[in-house]
What does this fold into?
Amino acid sequence: MPRGRYSLHDPHDHTPLGEEHFHCAPGPSGWRYVSQLTSPSGDFTGSVDLAVDELGRPIRMELHASDWQVRGAAIDGVTWVRTDPTGEHATEGNVQAHAFTGTSPAFLIATARMLRLTPESPSKRVRLVRFTAPVLAPLTLDQSWSLLKSETHATDNGPLPVDEYQVSDLDTGEQHTVHIAGDVVLAAPGIELEDLETPPSAFP
It folds into this structure.
């Protein structure tokens, strides 16, 4: 069960946004990721709980940020309930999309798992619903993911396969690179892996 810590920063001006303390593990029905988010001063700012099935589809997602909360799952596309700070004005949403995304590294791993890109099928398009702090408002976006290369690196714990992806936002044309090893993001815009207590898990 990988357990560790990511540092989060603004991908444009590199302003520190805090840290994400996580643990994750594959299970008999898929993969689960749980994390706590803290501000640069160490205050609790939110949490992520994401469970996906063996195909990478979200079977349960729960996000907290400030006093906002979103719960969602893959139902008729993706469906969610967003609750405001007072709890009086919960709103439901549904979009014909494949999955959710956000600032947490969990979503990059889940999307890569769902797309399962290979050298024979290196690129796919995907529609996602994005939630970002502080108010977790939904935004639907289209991305193209391409597997650039897969390399195996020697480590103290044995060989470590690393996949390098290029992710393109189809609305803005923005492109960025993501490096993933198993169920851990090694590097991505705004995300740095700072500490990892146990090696990444390998998906079957």
The CA atoms of residues 6 and 79 lie 28 Å apart. The first helix runs from residue 105 to 115. The chain has a mean pLDDT of 94. The longest strand covers residues 137-155.
